[in-house]
Write a structure and sequence with these properties.
With 214 residues, this protein is α/β, with parallel strands linked by helices. It contains 9 helices and 11 strands. The structure holds 1-O-pyrophosphono-5-O-phosphono-alpha-D-ribofuranose (PRP).
Length: 214
């Protein structure tokens, strides 16, 4: 049986922090640190294979078993809704998923009926407003610079990630409600968790220990 562990990383800052953490936990990640445009980085000696994926695709690779393990933001997990095990909150990439809008809406969000919501996260926005708050809303899917939507009259409010709060502040917007805390998570394919338990469990334990000590 092939016991190579395939780890899907979210290209960008989360990948760098994941690699650093795995190294601190005692896993050699030299292959993943190669400055290259290769998308599969394999270390034949350790039997670890890293794939560099777009963040939104990491849960897909893990659900289908193309990767055994993934490191991805909770925002992406909530939005993608994939079948996988979320095993560790890695702590880094911390931010909040929020409902935001113009300062003058502070404390009076409920005054707008049939809200128009601009967001990169239509599923999260729909679950929050339609399922949790039982409110019917119009969701407008955007791909970035979401803060523009209420400024330009496309939407009343937005559902987006807030990290430092600077983007909101510099655009005259504010947090109206917090939906969920967000951070990077380690996820595992459900079959791999059983079939490769002898390599995945020690990795999970080593990473948990490192997080407790760190
Ligand atoms: C994210 C998010 C906010 C901003 C929040 O955007 O969508 O716009 O960061 O960060 P802050 O609270 O520290 O200002 P990102 O940089 O990913 O770019 P995007 O707007 O193109 O999605």
């Amino acid at each position: 049986m092939n016991k190579t562990l395939t780890i899907a990383l979210s290209k960008g800052r989360l990948a760098d922090q994941a690699i650093e953490l795995l190294e601190r936990a005692g896993y050699n990640c030299e292959a993943a640190k190669e400055k290259t445009r290769k998308l599969i980085l394999e270390d034949p000696q350790t039997g670890m294979r890293f794939i560099m994926a777009k963040p939104a695709d990491v849960p897909t690779y893990v659900e289908y078993g193309a990767a055994d393990i993934g490191v991805v933001g909770k925002d992406t997990l909530l939005e993608e809704g994939r079948q996988l095990y979320e095993v560790i909150d890695l702590g880094f990439g911390a931010c909040r998923m929020c409902v935001c809008g113009p300062n003058e809406l502070k404390g009076r969000l409920d005054s707008i009926a049939n809200k128009r919501i601009g967001t990169k996260y239509p599923r999260i926005a729909r679950e929050y407003f339609e399922i949790k708050k039982r409110e019917s809303v119009e969701i407008i899917k955007l791909n970035g610079s979401v803060e523009l939507a209420p400024l330009i009259g496309l939407a009343d409010i937005i559902v987006d990630i807030v990290e430092s709060g600077r983007t909101l502040e510099e655009n005259g917007l504010t947090v109206l409600e917090t939906i969920a805390p967000i951070s990077a998570r380690m996820v595992v394919n459900r079959v791999s968790m059983k079939m490769k338990a002898d390599s995945i469990n020690p990795l999970i334990q080593a990473v948990k220990r490192q997080l407790q000590e760190g």
